[in-house]
Amino acid sequence: TAGNDVLLTSVGAQSLGNVASGRDVIISAASLNATSVTAPRNINAVVSGSTTLGNASGALITMRAGQDVTFNGTATATTALDIAANGQTAFNGVASAPNITVRSGNIAIGAAGRLGTIGTTQNVILTNSAGAQMTIGGSGVTGGYSLSDAEIARIFGDSIDISWTSSLANT
To answer: Helix, strand, or coil here: 57?
Structure first.
């Protein structure tokens, strides 16, 4: 816990408990696993491998991962949630912000997961950034970018945009 900013930089893996800041949290690491990250302003993580978070809360939550990003708890941003992962982005809890952007090679919204909140989330933008096959609807498929009927039913926003690009997620 810090009264001002928290800056964590590591060439290796970071495994953290509860990280709380009076302003911003900035993390750079090979991989990241944290129980919770809380900041009244910004949370910014750049990870060359994978990121797993329990809970995250801030004004702006920005995650960049060379592999996967997984939220196992709630992710609440008062301004925006901006995720880019070259692998899969998984939501196993509620992710809520006025603006949600997810660029990844695949997306998974678990049975207890939700992307967006009615009355709060205005825009949800999902982009398949791997250039792989994209399947929307049905029972879901393995391989490529897939959003099943059940996962789509867990997305809430005034505007929902699902698109494809051949660009890598974090470039």
So the answer is: strand
| DSSP letters spanning 76-137 | EEEEEEEEEEEEEEEESSEEE-SEEEEEEEEEEE-TT-EES-TTT--EEEEEE-S---EEES
Q: Please state the pTM of the whole predicted model.
A: 0.92
Dump pLDDT digits (tens) for 51-90. Answer: 999 999 999 999 999 999 999 999 999 999 999 999 999 9
Interacting residues of 147 by C-beta distance below 8 A, sequence separation 6+: 107, 109, 126, 135, 136, 137, 140, 162
Please tell me the distance from the alpha carbon of residue 17 to that of residue 154, in angstroms, as a whole number: 28
